[in-house]
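User: Let's play a game. I give you a shape written as tokens, and you guess the letters that built it. Ready? Here's round one.
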């Protein structure tokens, strides 16, 4: 088995505080501060994952930049998106969420990072059963704001990445030749 690290290549935050703009900064922001909602997007170029491997496990690693305490009452979600996002994406012009995969995670821990299992999503992307246009991270109710490193962070140690464990697929004809 081998481990492949895939860093985020694009990230963006949109908010109804600036409905016709966006935030493309060192951090992505997710949640609701009681007045405004913040939604963030990440994109990963998975072309470094060979097509002749089986994805055993995949985790999205987000590095926290605030709120280093435990609170299991705060829930965030990650889902695939149906459309691409760009620097022209804003709160009023967002990509649609694809409901095929929706994962729950708890961002408020005392740890420095949060890991979300995205194995099924990576398998769908790598087998071309689902178009890789990125993921959205959001909350669906009032919650404190969570901040994580972004793809454009000046600190390369907090850039989000996928940690993908792969193993070679067994070629049935080669196995028969060896017998």
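Assistant: Ready! My guess for every position:
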């Amino acid at each position: 088995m081998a481990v492949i690290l895939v860093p985020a290549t694009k990230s963006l935050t949109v908010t109804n505080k600036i409905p016709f703009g966006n935030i493309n900064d060192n951090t992505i922001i997710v949640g609701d501060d009681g007045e405004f909602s913040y939604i963030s997007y990440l994109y990963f170029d998975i072309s470094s994952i060979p097509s002749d491997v089986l994805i055993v496990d995949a985790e999205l690693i987000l590095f926290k930049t605030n709120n280093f305490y435990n609170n299991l009452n705060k829930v965030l979600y990650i889902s695939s998106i149906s459309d691409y996002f760009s620097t022209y994406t804003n709160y009023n012009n967002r990509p649609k969420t694809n409901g095929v995969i929706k994962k729950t995670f708890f961002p408020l821990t005392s740890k420095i990072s949060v890991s979300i299992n995205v194995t099924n999503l990576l398998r769908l992307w790598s087998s071309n059963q689902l178009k890789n246009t990125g993921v959205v991270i959001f909350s669906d109710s009032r919650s404190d704001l969570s901040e994580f490193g972004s793809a454009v962070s000046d600190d390369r140690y907090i850039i989000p990445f996928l940690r993908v464990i792969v193993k070679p697929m067994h070629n049935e004809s080669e196995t028969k030749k060896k017998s």
